[in-house]
Amino acid sequence: MKNCALAVLAMSVALPSYGYQLEKVYDGLKVPWSVEFVSDTKAYVTERNGGILLIDLATKTHQSLPVPEHIYTSGQGGLLDLSLSPIAPQKLYLTYSSSKNGNSNNNGAATALAVFSPQQPQNGWSTLFTASMEGSGGRHFGSRLLVDEQHIYMTIGERGEREAAQQLSNHNGTIIRLDHNGKPPASNFFSEQALPEIFSYGHRNPQGITRDNDGQIWAIEHGPRGGDEVNKITLGSNYGWPEVSQGKEYWGPISVGDPTSPPGMQEPELVYTPSIAPGSLFFYSGDRYPNLDGKWLAGALKLMHVSVIKQVDGRLMEELRLFEDLGERIRDISLSPNDYLYISTDSGNLYRVLPN
């Protein structure tokens, strides 16, 4: 075990809503993209621009894990989301940007999925899937994971290649579904034109995916200048990008696409204009925070808060914004086994949410 390079300071931030406070429990991290708890006090953390750590909040120390080969760590690329397997204790799934693209016709990086067993570290990371993608820049890789007992859902950005998000012959701008061996299940089939891994398409850059109490899958994605979306995800659905968007072009006040979805494309359940720049989406169901039970929490990077989303008469609406006074980009929202919410920030900090 190694001591954390920077001192960990106790800090509380008083909040006007719900009376919650934030307690800083760890710092000195390098853009902590994902936090995955293995016990009440231990969690795996991916640093987008660094390594994979097992941190101990009780002792304020961490241990470094091996990382996959061929990591592309430029722009928005690097080590991305982590998820523990629900059927194989301690097995870890990881998404990352790989410089070894699965598309032999393209020299650019691609979003990949790998698996690792800490009980057998000598075996290293094994790549299960590498997306076939258009684009060679350093943006819009996604990526978040949702893993259940049967499937792995993985979000993939469109890599800045807008039109590719409407093409079923690549994985740009999709949510894919795999089995635990990295293979597409036969139940994915919805079109002869679609790659077998594709579950939904027409996404821009989805960086949050979660499941509610009814088993419904939800995802949140970046719009351009305005038009961030929360979507209800269903098999074979087209979410419209770039033909449909409520956002504007970066170079001027010109609409990117039609603000209304035509037949055959799905309307978003909630739209943020101006953009909050979502970094994560988490559905909370628990007892420790009764005011948040049954609600979605979205971490905001640009506007630096946690957006609390509730459902009223079947429609999603933003209820309030938490932690605006913190002034940090909210990257991930996670839950420990003892029902404490944690948020990580691009400043390198990990906070525990304290109930009132």
What does this structure look like?
The protein is mainly beta and 356 residues long. Helix content is 0%, strand content 40%. It has no helices and 26 strands. The strands form 6 sheets. A 5-stranded antiparallel β-sheet has the order 1-7-6-5-4, with no helix packed on it. A 5-stranded antiparallel β-sheet has the order 2-3-26-25-24, with no helix packed on it. The protein has a 4-stranded antiparallel β-sheet with strand order 8-9-10-11, with no helix packed on it. The radius of gyration is 19 Å and the shape is globular. The model is unreliable at 1-16 (pLDDT under 50).
DSSP E strands, number: 26
N/C terminus separation: 34 Å
Strand content: 35-45%
Helix proportion of residues, in percent?
A: under 10%
User: By helix and strand content, what is the structural category?
Assistant: mainly beta
User: Stretches where pLDDT falls below 50 for ≥5 residues?
Assistant: 1-16
Number of helical runs? 0
Largest sheet entry: 5 strands, antiparallel
> How are the strands of the biggest sheet laid out side by side?
1-7-6-5-4
Give the C-alpha Rg.
19 Å
Average pLDDT taken over every residue: 92
Order of helices and strands: EEEEEEEEEEEEEEEEEEEEEEEEEE
Shape: globular
List strands and helices in order, with pairings:
Elements: E1 2-3, E2 12-14, E3 21-26, E4 32-37, E5 42-47, E6 52-56, E7 61-65, E8 79-84, E9 92-98, E10 110-116, E11 126-130, E12 145-147, E13 152-156, E14 174-178, E15 198-201, E16 205-211, E17 217-222, E18 228-233, E19 270-272, E20 278-284, E21 295-300, E22 306-312, E23 315-322, E24 330-335, E25 341-345, E26 350-354
Organism: Vibrio ulleungensis
Pfam family, one: GSDH
InterPro entries: 6-blade_b-propeller_TolB-like, Glc/Sorbosone_DH, Quinoprot_gluc/sorb_DH_b-prop
